[in-house]
Design goal:
The complex is a heterodimer of chains A (117) and B (113).
Chain A (H helix, E strand, L loop, with lengths): L2 E3 L4 E5 L4 E3 L2 E3 L5 E8 L6 E7 L6 E3 L2 E6 L4 E6 L8 E9 L9 E2 L3 E6 L1
Chain B lengths: L4 E3 L2 E4 L5 E6 L6 E8 L3 E9 L2 E5 L6 E5 L5 E5 L8 E8 L8 E2 L3 E5 L1
Parallel strand pairs in B: 2-11
Antiparallel strand pairs in B: 1-3, 3-8, 4-5, 4-9, 5-6, 7-8, 9-10, 9-11
Classes of the chains: A mainly beta (117), B mainly beta (113).
């Protein structure tokens, strides 16, 4: 069975601080995908990144960066110089590659990030 | 390019009734998945459709069903509503079915009284 754990339920920071959201996953599959989604108050989940299990390179996109470490089964997300607009619930998710079929995401419980001015 | 649309956005029903929710995927996307989001259980996968076929199903009772039409639009139906079915129902579309990134709609907020 697959499982995603986001141990941080809520994080509160002051604008311009850096913040890291933790994600630990469990899977028996050797091929899988990891995702991060952002859910602002409007409710719509916004796709941020997809990473496959064979690509452990860290990725940076503007103020966002992701650290994927298979050895610790972690896929952490860092926001540099946080802004008030970053306030949202962030979800880490896991899916398995079943050869082109059977696609579903297993989500963590989410981390509520509040960035205060 | 228009995003995923879901109708209605808000719905209030009473116990025992049934409800149908609709989802229109992004143009060209053939895979549609449905998720239920509640404060207690979080986001849970309901089912996925690709080319009018249900490809995968989550652990929900048979009261939850869905279908996909030839234009990739999808509907989900919940019969004999229970209070615990109150949730945000999210639809996501994807170009492919093999773990490609999914794009979510704004959701339908269902309240069962």
């Amino acid at each position: 069975a697959q499982k995603v754990t986001q141990a941080q339920t809520e994080i509160s920071v002051v604008e311009k601080e850096d913040v890291t959201l933790d994600c630990v996953y469990e899977t028996r599959d050797t091929t899988y995908y990891l995702f991060w989604y952002k859910q602002p108050p409007s409710g719509e989940l916004v796709f941020l990144i997809r990473r496959n299990s064979f690509d452990e390179q860290n990725e940076i996109s503007g103020r966002y960066s992701w650290n994927f470490q298979k050895s610790t089964s972690s896929f952490n997300f860092t926001i540099t110089a946080s802004q008030v607009v970053d306030s949202a619930v962030y979800f880490c998710a896991l899916s398995k590659n079943s050869g082109g079929s059977n696609y579903k995401l297993t989500f963590g419980k989410g981390t509520l990030l509040t960035v205060n001015p | 390019k228009a995003g995923v649309t879901q109708t209605p956005r808000y719905l209030i029903k009473t116990r025992g009734q049934q409800v149908t929710l609709s989802c229109s995927p992004i143009s060209g996307h053939r895979s549609v998945s449905w998720y239920q989001q509640t404060p207690g259980q979080g986001l849970q996968f309901l089912f996925e459709y690709f080319s009018e076929t249900q490809r995968n199903k989550g652990n929900f009772p048979g009261r939850f069903s869905g279908r996909q039409f030839s234009n990739s639009r999808s509907e989900m139906n919940v019969s004999t509503l229970e209070l615990g079915d109150s949730a945000l129902y999210l639809c996501a579309s994807s170009f492919r079915t093999d773990s490609y990134e999914q794009y979510f709609g704004p959701g339908t907020r269902l309240t069962v009284t």
